[in-house]
Amino acid sequence: MSTTMSNGPADGPGNGPAVSRWEFDAMFERVRTWGRWEPAERGAWNRVGADHVRRAAALVRSGTVVPLGRPWDTTSGPDNRKPALHYMSDLGDVEAPEPSTHKDFVGADYHGKGISHLDALSHVAYRGRLYGGGAARELVGAAGARFGSVAALGPLVTRGVLLDLPAVQGRAWLEPGQAVHAGDVAAAEEALGVEIAEGDAVLLRTGRFRRRRELGPWDADAACAGFHVDAVPLLAERGIALLGGDGDSDVRPSPVEGVHSPVHTLAVAAMGVPLLDNLDVEELAAACAGTDRYDFLLLVSPLNIPGGTGSPVNPVAVL
Amino acid sequence: MSTTMSNGPADGPGNGPAVSRWEFDAMFERVRTWGRWEPAERGAWNRVGADHVRRAAALVRSGTVVPLGRPWDTTSGPDNRKPALHYMSDLGDVEAPEPSTHKDFVGADYHGKGISHLDALSHVAYRGRLYGGGAARELVGAAGARFGSVAALGPLVTRGVLLDLPAVQGRAWLEPGQAVHAGDVAAAEEALGVEIAEGDAVLLRTGRFRRRRELGPWDADAACAGFHVDAVPLLAERGIALLGGDGDSDVRPSPVEGVHSPVHTLAVAAMGVPLLDNLDVEELAAACAGTDRYDFLLLVSPLNIPGGTGSPVNPVAVL
Amino acid sequence: MSTTMSNGPADGPGNGPAVSRWEFDAMFERVRTWGRWEPAERGAWNRVGADHVRRAAALVRSGTVVPLGRPWDTTSGPDNRKPALHYMSDLGDVEAPEPSTHKDFVGADYHGKGISHLDALSHVAYRGRLYGGGAARELVGAAGARFGSVAALGPLVTRGVLLDLPAVQGRAWLEPGQAVHAGDVAAAEEALGVEIAEGDAVLLRTGRFRRRRELGPWDADAACAGFHVDAVPLLAERGIALLGGDGDSDVRPSPVEGVHSPVHTLAVAAMGVPLLDNLDVEELAAACAGTDRYDFLLLVSPLNIPGGTGSPVNPVAVL
Amino acid sequence: MSTTMSNGPADGPGNGPAVSRWEFDAMFERVRTWGRWEPAERGAWNRVGADHVRRAAALVRSGTVVPLGRPWDTTSGPDNRKPALHYMSDLGDVEAPEPSTHKDFVGADYHGKGISHLDALSHVAYRGRLYGGGAARELVGAAGARFGSVAALGPLVTRGVLLDLPAVQGRAWLEPGQAVHAGDVAAAEEALGVEIAEGDAVLLRTGRFRRRRELGPWDADAACAGFHVDAVPLLAERGIALLGGDGDSDVRPSPVEGVHSPVHTLAVAAMGVPLLDNLDVEELAAACAGTDRYDFLLLVSPLNIPGGTGSPVNPVAVL
Predict the structure, then answer these.
(1) In this structure, are residues D202 and D281 in contact, taking their beta carbons and an 8 Å threshold?
(2) Where does the record place the region Disordered (chains A, B, C, D) (predicted)?
(3) What's the rounded Cα separation, in Å, for the pair D244 and D170?
(4) What's the predicted TM-score (pTM) here?
(5) Model confidence at A70, in pLDDT bands (50, 70, 90)?
(6) Fold for domain C21-72+114-318?
(7) What is the pLDDT of residues A43-58, one digit of tens each?
(8) Residue in chain C lying closest to A103 (CA)
(9) Nearest alpha-carbon partner for C213 in C70, C40, C28, C48
(10) CB spacing of D88 vs B87 below 8 angstroms
C-alpha cells in the first residue's frame, strides 16, 4: 500500500456508473435474505454466534482501545442540520448538597450526517416493506417500530475490518462523490492483508473527517464518498453482519435512478444488515497502520430503546 | 451459596450504623487519590492499561453477550421522575422515498433513578470541589464541564465482577434500605469464588429490578439497597476502576449525617471512580450462576459528549 | 349566588347519567357543523368576525389584566405525567460578553392534564375522521397536521364568559367526577347574570386548582369535574367559538359507553370548537366576583406552529 | 410618506457613527431607571396601568386581528442556528380510541434570530449586573432566574406603535447593517402621523422578512438593520414599556466598542424594557398602511415560565 498521499481530486469516474431501477430491483432480489433467520428482526446480526464472539475477543493483541464516536455536535451546519442538544439541568444549585451534583440533558434526532449512530432494521423500507416483508405503515407508528427496533438488536460484539481506501489509494481522502466499487473492496483486502468473513462488521474509511478538519464541513447529503451498489453483492456473499464507516455507506449523489440511498436499501431492507453512520475512524486508521493489522474486536452497544429505529452510539475497536 | 430464597424483609440492621460528618470526612481523606494520575480527569480509569484490557478479553469463554441497559423509560413514576423522551420524526412521510425512512428523536435528563447511565467525574463535588481539588463553580458551567467530562473518560474495557448479594444471602432481593457492608463484600467474594482486583469494575446486584417486576416501582430516592460507606475503604484498597449496579451504589436513606449520597462522594470525588447507575443485572446474574463464574469482560461505551457529566449507556458483559 | 361554601363531596349523581354509544352518535350528528365555514380548518373560530372583536374590546372597563396560564410545570406527578422541560442554555458563560446573556430551552409534550394549552381541530378524530370529514390517517403524519393545525387557527380575540360553578353552588370546588349538566349551565347564567352568545369563549370553573392547592394533586385522568355531554347541545345552540376551563371540559370518568372524551369529540370533531385545557381561573373568578361581571375580553394567542395540533398558551382576560 | 420603493442598498452611513465604551457607559447612566418601580422585576412594564389598558382597548376600530409570530422554524440555517423542535407524539395510534387523538412535542432554545420571542429582564446583564443592580451570577442559575423572569412580567396589553422605516424611506426594506437613528424615529413619527407615548410598545419594521422572502436568509448576527444607540435616549424620554420589531432591535455590526448588543443592554439592563425579537410585521405594515393608522391594541402573552428568561410568543395587534 502506498504511503505517498495526494490531496487532489479523484481522477476516477465519480459516483457512476448509473444503475437503472430495473437493475437495482434485480440486485435487491439477489441479495435478499428474508426468511433466513429467527428472530427475523435481528437480521444479519443473527450470523454472529458465540463462536464469532470468542474469535473476535481473541483478536485482542495490544489492548489498545479506540473509540469511534464523533463528539456530540450541538452546532448546526451543512452536515449537521439537526444539531444535537446538550443542556445543564443542575449546576450544583438545584438539588441540595452535600454533595453538590451536576446534571445534564442530552437529546438528538440522530439520523442524518452529524451524529455517530446505528441504523436498526426499522430505519429503512423499500416499496413500503421493511426487511422481512412486513408493511412499514403497519409496523412503524408514533409509538415506534414494532419490528426491527434497535432494542431487538441489542449489542454487537464481533470482528471488525477496516477498509482504509485512502491508504490503499495513496490519498489523504476520497473526494466527495467518489464511489467505492467491488473491485476497490477486493483490492483493499489484498493491499491491507485482510479478508472479510462471515459475521464481520465492515467499516469503510473515506477520510471524510480528515478532509472536514482540513477543509471545513460541506453538505454531505449532496456529495460524499461511499459504496457504489456494485460493491454490495460482494459484501453479501461474504456474509457481513454490519456495515458502516465515516460516511453513511452510500456514495452521493446516488448512481441509482429514483433511489436516493441504494446501499441503505440493499443492506438494511434486503440483507438485514444494520448500518453505522458518521464514525470517526481516523484514529483507528492510524492504529491499524501502526500495527499493519486491519481487523480487531469491535463492540457496538446501542441504547436499549424499545421501538427505536437506531441509536446514537460510540462504537469501540480493541486492537 | 444458598439456593433457597426468601422474599422476607431483611432481618439485619437496615441502613446503619450511622456515620458522623467528622468520621465521613476522615474516610474521604483516607481514600482520596487526588494527584495520583495523568490525565487527572480520567481518575481511576487510568488504572486500566493495555494489560488489563488484554486480560479482560481473555476472560471470554462461552461468547455469551449480556446487555445491562434498562429499556429507555418514557413513563414517569416514583423511580422515574424525569421520563426519557422518544419521538418519531419521520414515519416514511417526511423525507421523500425511495427508500422511505423512519427516524426518531431521543432525549433524557438521565441522572436519577430511571435510566441506565454512567456518572463521569464532573457529576459530583464535595465541599465545592471536584475530584482533584478544582472548584466546581469554576469548572462546570452552562456549556458543560471543563474538567472530568465523560468525553475525557472515553470507553472502558476491563474485567467486571458481579457481587450478587441476594444470591449469596439466599434471598430474591435485598430490601430497600438494606446496607451492604465491607463484610458482605468479603463474604460475597468467598461465596462466589471471585476476588476483586486492581482495575476491576465492580457491579452490585441488589435484585432491585426483580423486586420491581414483582412488586411494582417504588421511590428509590427514599429507600434503596446499596453500599454502606464502610464498604468503600475495602473497594479503594483493591483499586477498583468503576463501581455500579442495579441501584446507584448508595444505600438510601443515607447513614451519613448531612451527606445524601456518601458513596457517590467517596467514589467519584475522592477516589476518581466513575459510577454506573440503574443497570439491569438480572440476566447477568442468571448467566453467572449458570456458569458459576462471576467475572467477565465488561465494556462500557458512553456517548462522546464534550462537557457531559455522564451519559446514558448500555454496558455489555461478555462471558 | 351563594357566598357560603362547603368542601363536602358533591351530593349529586356524580358523572351520570350513562349515555349509550347510539345516543352519543345521534348527538354527534345533531351538533355537527361540517361544511358550514370557510376556511373549514378554523371551524367555529369563523364565527368571530370583526364585529365580535370590536364588541369584545368594548367590554374592557377596569383595565384589569388576568393571565390564565398555569406555571410551566417541570415536576412529574399524577396530573403531570409528561413534565415540561426547562433548561438554561447560557448563564452568561457561553456567549462572550458584553453584555452577558442568559438563555433557556423550553419544551413540552403539552397535551394532557398538566400544561395550559389549546387543542386545535386536528387534535381529535372520531371514527377516523377529523372535523369536516377528512380521514385522520391521511391528514396527520409525522410532519404534523395538514388540516386543522393551530397555525390555521391563529389568535382568538373574543368575548369570554366564566361559568363559576362552585360559586353558583356555594362550594369551594366541584368534586372530581362531578358532572356539569345543561341545567347547571342555564342556572349559572342566571345566577351570574351573564348569557352565552354566538362567538363566545366559554370557560368553566370547577375549582380544580383551588382543590389542588389545598389537598394536593390527584390523577385527573381518572376523576375530574367537567361537562356531561348533555350540556353540549345547549352550547352548540348558543354558537360558541371556544370552550375551556380549569379541567379539560370532559367529566371523568366518561359517562359515554366506549368514548373516553366525549366532550372533546363533540366540541372539536363535530362542532369545530377548539378547547382550552388546564387554565388556572382562580384569579379570574375572584376578579369576576369582585366586579360582579362574568364576561370580559379574552385573548388567546397560540404559538404559530405549522402542523401543530395545538399549543401551550397563556390566555388573558381583560376586565 | 413615499410610495415609491427602491431595493437599492442604503446610501447612508451604515451602522455608524462609532460609539466609545466611555460614551456608552454615560448613556447607560442617563437612561437607567433602577429603583424606580415596584415590583422591580417588571421594569418598565410597571408603566402600563389600568388606564393604559383601557385606552389601548379603545384603539380598536376595524376589529382586524393581526398575528406577529413567525412560523415555528424547525429548519436550521444562517439565521436559525438552533432550529425549533416539533415532533408528533401520538398519531391516533398510541392512546386508545375513541376518540383517537393527535399530540405533539414542541421545544426551542428560542433566543437567537429565528424564533419570535420576548426577552425578560433576566436575559441581559451588563458588567455582571441585571436591571436593578443585582449580581447576575447570584440571581440566575441552572434552575432559572430568581429575578426578572418572564413569569414576573406576565402578559402585556398596551398601545402598540409601528415605526415602518422602509415605508417612510420609500424602500422595500432597510439593508442589513443600516442603523435607525433618533432623527429617523422622529421623522417616522411625523411621516406616519403617530407619536410615541408613555407605556407604549414600539415596534420597528426594517423589512427583514420581506427581504428574506425575496432574497433568502442571511446571517443576521453578522448584519442586520436596527436601532443605533443614539435612538435610545429618545425612546427612554418617551417612557416606552416595550421595544421590538422584525430584527432584534440592535443594528449589527454593533457601533459600540466592546458591546455586541448595545440596544439590548440599554433597553433591558438600564431601562427595564423587555424586547420582542424576530416578529413578522409585514402583514401589520400592510394593515397600518391600509388604514393610515400606525397605533393599535397590542397583546403579548408570554408562556408562564417560572425562572424563564423570556418566552416564545405570538403577539397580536388589533386594529
Answers:
(1) no
(2) 1-20
(3) 21
(4) 0.95
(5) very high
(6) Glucose Oxidase; domain 1 (3.50.30)
(7) 999 999 999 999 999 9
(8) C87
(9) C70
(10) yes
